[in-house]
Specification:
two-stranded parallel ribbon; 2% strand; mainly alpha; 8 helices; globular; single chain
Protein backbone atom coordinates (compact mmCIF):
# COMPACT_ATOMS: atom_id res chain seq x y z
CA UNK A 1 0.00 0.00 0.00
CA UNK A 2 1.34 3.40 -0.97
CA UNK A 3 1.65 6.39 1.32
CA UNK A 4 -0.53 8.79 -0.70
CA UNK A 5 -3.74 8.20 -2.62
CA UNK A 6 -4.22 10.51 -5.60
CA UNK A 7 -7.73 11.23 -6.86
CA UNK A 8 -8.48 12.24 -10.46
CA UNK A 9 -9.76 15.76 -11.05
CA UNK A 10 -13.15 16.51 -12.58
CA UNK A 11 -11.40 17.37 -15.84
CA UNK A 12 -9.57 14.02 -15.74
CA UNK A 13 -12.85 12.18 -15.28
CA UNK A 14 -14.59 14.15 -18.03
CA UNK A 15 -11.78 13.46 -20.52
CA UNK A 16 -11.68 9.74 -19.66
CA UNK A 17 -15.48 9.46 -19.97
CA UNK A 18 -15.43 11.15 -23.39
CA UNK A 19 -12.73 8.78 -24.60
CA UNK A 20 -14.57 5.73 -23.24
CA UNK A 21 -17.79 6.76 -24.97
CA UNK A 22 -16.30 7.79 -28.33
CA UNK A 23 -13.39 5.43 -28.96
CA UNK A 24 -13.28 2.28 -31.06
CA UNK A 25 -11.08 -0.80 -31.21
CA UNK A 26 -9.12 0.50 -34.22
CA UNK A 27 -8.18 3.73 -32.46
CA UNK A 28 -7.35 1.88 -29.25
CA UNK A 29 -5.18 -0.66 -31.07
CA UNK A 30 -3.31 2.11 -32.93
CA UNK A 31 -2.72 4.08 -29.71
CA UNK A 32 -1.63 0.93 -27.88
CA UNK A 33 0.90 0.21 -30.62
CA UNK A 34 2.20 3.78 -30.72
CA UNK A 35 2.61 3.94 -26.97
CA UNK A 36 5.45 1.42 -27.24
CA UNK A 37 7.53 4.26 -28.68
CA UNK A 38 7.63 5.77 -25.19
CA UNK A 39 8.33 2.53 -23.33
CA UNK A 40 11.36 2.59 -21.01
CA UNK A 41 12.82 -0.62 -22.47
CA UNK A 42 12.73 0.74 -26.02
CA UNK A 43 14.16 4.10 -24.98
CA UNK A 44 16.99 2.63 -22.92
CA UNK A 45 17.91 0.32 -25.80
CA UNK A 46 17.96 3.28 -28.22
CA UNK A 47 19.96 5.43 -25.79
CA UNK A 48 22.47 2.61 -25.26
CA UNK A 49 22.78 2.07 -29.02
CA UNK A 50 23.35 5.81 -29.50
CA UNK A 51 25.90 5.82 -26.71
CA UNK A 52 27.77 2.92 -28.32
CA UNK A 53 27.60 4.56 -31.75
CA UNK A 54 29.24 7.72 -30.43
CA UNK A 55 32.02 5.63 -28.95
CA UNK A 56 32.68 4.03 -32.33
CA UNK A 57 31.89 6.75 -34.89
CA UNK A 58 31.03 10.15 -33.37
CA UNK A 59 33.46 11.00 -30.54
CA UNK A 60 32.47 14.69 -30.64
CA UNK A 61 28.93 13.68 -29.55
CA UNK A 62 29.98 11.57 -26.54
CA UNK A 63 28.89 14.08 -23.89
CA UNK A 64 25.43 14.34 -25.44
CA UNK A 65 25.17 10.54 -25.65
CA UNK A 66 26.29 10.23 -22.02
CA UNK A 67 23.63 12.76 -21.07
CA UNK A 68 20.84 10.99 -22.97
CA UNK A 69 21.77 7.60 -21.51
CA UNK A 70 21.94 8.92 -17.94
CA UNK A 71 18.63 10.75 -18.27
CA UNK A 72 17.02 7.65 -19.83
CA UNK A 73 18.17 5.50 -16.92
CA UNK A 74 16.99 8.04 -14.35
CA UNK A 75 13.58 8.43 -15.99
CA UNK A 76 13.24 4.65 -16.10
CA UNK A 77 13.76 4.31 -12.35
CA UNK A 78 11.98 7.42 -11.04
CA UNK A 79 8.39 6.50 -12.03
CA UNK A 80 8.71 3.12 -10.30
CA UNK A 81 9.87 4.81 -7.11
CA UNK A 82 7.03 7.34 -7.28
CA UNK A 83 4.42 4.64 -7.98
CA UNK A 84 5.46 2.97 -4.72
CA UNK A 85 4.63 6.24 -2.93
CA UNK A 86 1.44 7.18 -4.81
CA UNK A 87 -1.67 5.08 -5.40
CA UNK A 88 -4.12 6.04 -8.10
CA UNK A 89 -6.55 3.79 -9.92
CA UNK A 90 -6.10 3.77 -13.68
CA UNK A 91 -9.07 5.06 -15.70
CA UNK A 92 -9.26 1.78 -17.65
CA UNK A 93 -10.27 0.04 -14.41
CA UNK A 94 -13.27 2.33 -13.99
CA UNK A 95 -15.00 1.89 -17.34
CA UNK A 96 -17.19 -0.80 -18.77
CA UNK A 97 -18.25 1.14 -21.84
CA UNK A 98 -14.62 1.73 -22.81
CA UNK A 99 -13.81 -1.98 -22.74
CA UNK A 100 -16.78 -2.69 -25.00
CA UNK A 101 -15.26 -0.17 -27.40
CA UNK A 102 -11.75 -1.68 -27.31
CA UNK A 103 -10.01 -0.02 -24.35
CA UNK A 104 -7.33 -2.47 -23.11
CA UNK A 105 -6.22 -3.10 -19.54
CA UNK A 106 -2.80 -1.65 -18.83
CA UNK A 107 -0.25 -2.14 -16.08
CA UNK A 108 -1.04 -2.50 -12.41
CA UNK A 109 -4.44 -1.15 -11.51
CA UNK A 110 -3.21 1.35 -8.85
CA UNK A 111 -0.14 2.66 -10.75
CA UNK A 112 -1.67 5.55 -12.66
CA UNK A 113 0.38 8.35 -11.08
CA UNK A 114 2.64 9.51 -12.66
CA UNK A 115 2.76 8.32 -16.24
CA UNK A 116 6.19 6.77 -16.73
CA UNK A 117 5.86 7.02 -20.50
CA UNK A 118 5.21 10.75 -20.15
CA UNK A 119 8.25 11.14 -17.86
CA UNK A 120 10.42 9.65 -20.62
CA UNK A 121 8.82 11.84 -23.27
CA UNK A 122 9.16 15.01 -21.19
CA UNK A 123 12.87 14.31 -20.81
CA UNK A 124 13.16 13.65 -24.55
CA UNK A 125 11.30 16.85 -25.42
CA UNK A 126 13.57 18.82 -23.12
CA UNK A 127 16.73 17.18 -24.49
CA UNK A 128 15.59 18.18 -27.98
CA UNK A 129 17.10 21.60 -27.17
CA UNK A 130 20.41 19.97 -28.05
CA UNK A 131 19.25 19.42 -31.66
CA UNK A 132 19.00 21.81 -34.61
CA UNK A 133 15.64 23.71 -34.72
CA UNK A 134 13.93 21.57 -37.39
CA UNK A 135 14.72 18.31 -35.62
CA UNK A 136 13.91 19.86 -32.25
CA UNK A 137 10.32 20.60 -33.30
CA UNK A 138 9.85 17.12 -34.77
CA UNK A 139 11.13 15.42 -31.60
CA UNK A 140 8.90 17.57 -29.41
CA UNK A 141 5.86 16.81 -31.57
CA UNK A 142 6.54 13.06 -31.34
CA UNK A 143 7.13 13.28 -27.57
CA UNK A 144 3.80 15.05 -26.98
CA UNK A 145 1.93 12.70 -29.34
CA UNK A 146 3.33 9.58 -27.69
CA UNK A 147 2.47 10.97 -24.25
CA UNK A 148 -1.12 11.56 -25.35
CA UNK A 149 -1.49 7.90 -26.35
CA UNK A 150 -1.45 7.08 -22.63
CA UNK A 151 -4.63 9.11 -22.21
CA UNK A 152 -6.27 7.60 -25.30
CA UNK A 153 -5.76 4.01 -24.06
CA UNK A 154 -7.03 5.12 -20.62
CA UNK A 155 -3.83 3.95 -18.95
CA UNK A 156 -3.53 7.36 -17.29
CA UNK A 157 -5.57 10.38 -16.38
CA UNK A 158 -4.65 13.57 -18.22
CA UNK A 159 -3.14 15.02 -15.04
CA UNK A 160 -0.87 11.95 -14.70
CA UNK A 161 0.48 12.63 -18.17
CA UNK A 162 0.98 16.36 -17.55
CA UNK A 163 2.72 15.64 -14.22
CA UNK A 164 4.89 12.95 -15.78
CA UNK A 165 5.87 15.11 -18.75
CA UNK A 166 6.75 18.02 -16.46
CA UNK A 167 8.78 15.73 -14.21
CA UNK A 168 10.69 14.43 -17.23
CA UNK A 169 11.58 17.98 -18.29
CA UNK A 170 12.79 18.72 -14.76
CA UNK A 171 14.93 15.57 -14.59
CA UNK A 172 16.60 16.32 -17.92
CA UNK A 173 17.32 19.92 -16.89
CA UNK A 174 18.70 18.83 -13.50
CA UNK A 175 21.16 16.45 -15.15
CA UNK A 176 22.52 19.01 -17.64
CA UNK A 177 25.03 20.75 -15.35
CA UNK A 178 26.60 17.40 -14.50
CA UNK A 179 26.50 15.53 -17.79
CA UNK A 180 26.97 18.35 -20.29
CA UNK A 181 29.41 20.55 -18.37
CA UNK A 182 32.55 21.37 -20.29
CA UNK A 183 35.50 19.43 -19.04
CA UNK A 184 38.24 21.57 -17.64
CA UNK A 185 41.55 21.12 -19.34
CA UNK A 186 44.01 19.16 -17.29
CA UNK A 187 46.70 21.35 -15.82
CA UNK A 188 50.00 20.56 -17.38
CA UNK A 189 52.73 19.73 -14.96
CA UNK A 190 55.77 21.81 -15.44
CA UNK A 191 58.91 21.13 -13.60
CA UNK A 192 60.65 24.05 -11.97
Amino acid sequence: MALVTVKPTRIDTAIANEIAHHTNSGLEHAAQTLTWGADEHVLIALAAAGWLYTRLRQPQQRRVADHILMVSLATAVLPHVLKSVFDQTRPDRLTVTGHWRGVPFSGRSRDAFPSGHAVHMGALASAADLLPPARRQAVRFVAVALSLTRIVVLAHWASDVVAGFTLGVAVERLFRPFTLAKQRPKASRTRP
